[in-house]
Specification:
5-stranded mixed β-sheet; 4 domains; single chain; about 550 residues; Rossmann fold; alpha/beta; 5-stranded parallel β-sheet; Alpha-Beta Plaits; 10 strands; sequence-specific DNA binding; elongated
Length: about 550
């Protein structure tokens, strides 16, 4: 027999729950009530409670705070949330607290008893399952969907060494020999964009919403169970179960249903996905092989031809290409970054990307591999150049998010832009490291101006490079050379202008370009302001200059 606690400040709702709940049929021995969260905590201390039904909006101690305390002090307790407010904060806390279900007021008999049955199924499963896998790996506050997710993941990752216990088989449809199975992989192409625009940057909430969409698309003989891959933020896994029928029929239904999923995700959240459908298997333990073929289907999609959602079959062959490598280009990129020439490093990367674009194909799998290898090699380079290790991304799939880089790409152009953003991040960290590891010499600024006077020189170039304030740099430069930085640039240009004007074979227009001026008139005005004569007048009589 189970004990249930209702925590709600509204007596009519508590009474409605008492009336609507099928307590006897569900094996409930006692239903207790608390009028607020604080009283609920007291009753949890006094009684052995198996399930708490919690209203989110209450005085004294609200549902959000109560869930947090339960999660910390009563990790074995299962919870169902009831709220009259479709509020983001409430939903997020419910997800983080792994509640069994989330119901909106006014509740009805069907939804309430379905949620109760789900909770008691979890409790019953805990009592029946005695295998080593369950004892070691299933948290006591896990809901039935989380339990199924753990079982499927253990199969996919091939971490289940022994056959599943008999108690676990019905949970995943493996107790019926007539069932067939397939794994489907959904790759989210615009994860950061969707999570930012629609889910307050909460990727867990995005996963939750997407899994709900997947799980809603099911029929009498065709069921879908979707969940996020905990090791890959961009990946959702769906296990499809179908009873009887032909393999071809199941394959057709899978394509049809996944197209519906993709359209719904895009309509509701603006989410773009690639979908790989794995091979159909008769044995639930072969879902791992089906998952591999689903991944291969996604990896084989040609990024150069990708236009929005694509559904690919596990029977599709991986698109083989030349074995591309960064090894010949990383030294070139390093030389460019060490010398502070980011533009040259960009051109090296751009030229390589141009070769990929002109190839017969560039698969999604190869795109993943190339950016993974790029991060590894750039990390090695940055460490050799004394960049602080904590400033570098991890090598895993989610590492770029850790350094603030949005890694979305749904086209080759977006992929190339991602590579450039990664390159720029490393360039900035290397520049910071070089600046921190060498003493500043104001003569470096003078030398740069002497050699690059024809460029558009801005003081911000030096403040960013040396991490010094604008005021400090200008004051220090003037103390050493008697000119402000802008004044010195002008002086160098004007001195050089005289030298060039002394050569009669050079046109004034050409001289203007050689000095970095936008046009002849702008140069002439600057020359007159500096020497009180025009370039033409100086050329006629140099003594006037």
């Amino acid at each position: 027999m189970y004990n249930v606690l209702i925590v709600d400040d509204e007596e009519p709702l508590r009474e409605a729950i008492r009336i609507l709940g099928d307590w006897k049929g569900l094996g409930v021995g006692q239903v207790l009530e608390a009028t607020d969260g604080q009283m609920g905590l007291s009753m949890l201390e006094e009684h052995k409670i198996d399930l708490a039904i919690i209203d989110m909006k209450m005085p004294v101690l609200n549902g959000v705070d109560l869930l947090r305390m339960i999660e910390r002090e009563y990790p074995q307790l299962l919870t169902i949330v009831i709220s009259g407010y479709n509020d983001f904060e409430y939903t997020r806390q419910a997800i983080h607290s792994k509640v069994v279900d989330y119901l909106l007021k006014p509740i009805n008999r069907g939804d309430l008893n379905e949620a109760l049955a789900k909770a008691f199924n979890v409790l019953e499963a805990k009592r029946r399952m005695e295998s080593e896998f369950i004892n070691k790996n299933i948290a006591l506050n896990m809901s039935l969907p989380k339990l199924k997710e753990k079982i499927y993941l253990s199969i996919i990752e091939r971490s289940t060494k022994n056959q599943l216990s008999e108690a676990m088989l019905p949970l995943i449809g493996a107790d019926d020999s007539g069932n067939r199975f397939a794994a489907i992989v959904l790759r989210v192409l615009n994860l950061e964009e969707t999570s930012t625009n629609r889910f307050h940057q909460d990727v867990d909430l995005l996963h939750f919403a997407a899994a709900n969409v997947i799980n809603e698309i099911a029929g009498d003989h065709f069921q879908c169970f979707g969940f996020a891959n905990p090791k890959r933020d961009r990946e959702l896994i769906t296990v499809v179960t179908m009873k009887g029928g032909y393999r071809e029929d199941m394959a057709y239904r899978a394509v049809h249903q996944m197209n519906k999923v993709a359209a719904t995700l895009n309509k509701l959240f603006g989410t773009l996905v690639l979908i790989g459908i794995g091979d159909i298997r008769d044995d639930v333990m072969e879902i791992s092989a089906s998952y591999d073929s689903a991944k291969s289907a996604i990896y084989g999609i040609d990024l150069l031809k990708l236009q929005g959602t694509t559904v690919a079959s596990g029977s599709d062959k991986f698109a083989s290409t030349d074995n591309r490598s960064w090894m010949g280009r990383i030294p070139m990129i390093r030389n460019a970054l060490e010398s502070g020439n980011l533009q040259h490093a960009r051109s090296i990367l751009g030229d390589y990307a141009k070769k990929w674009r002109s190839a017969e194909g560039f698969s999604v799998g190869e795109a993943d591999r190339m950016i993974h290898d790029f991060v590894i090699l750039m990390n090695d380079m940055a460490l050799e150049l004394k960049v602080v290790p904590e400033r570098l991304p991890t090598n895993g799939e989610n590492g770029l998010r850790g350094i603030g880089i949005m890694a979305d790409f749904a086209t080759f152009d977006q992929y190339e832009s991602l590579l450039i953003r990664v390159l720029e991040y490393y360039a900035d960290e290397i520049r910071k490291s070089q600046s921190a590891n060498r003493q500043f010499d104001v003569g470096d600024i003078k030398a740069y101006i002497d050699n690059h006077y024809y460029e558009d020189i801005k003081i911000s170039m030096f403040t960013e490079k040396y991490y010094l304030s604008r005021e400090y740099l200008m004051r220090l430069f003037k103390q050493h050379y008697g000119f402000g930085i802008h004044e010195y640039v002008q002086k160098v240009r004007m001195d050089k202008a005289k030298v060039l004007l002394d050569d009669p074979s050079l046109k004034i227009q050409d001289i203007s370009s050689m000095l970095g001026y936008k046009d002849k008139n702008y140069f002439s005005k600057a020359f007159r302001n500096y020497y009180s004569v025009s370039p033409s007048e100086y050329r006629e009589n140099p003594a006037n200059g």
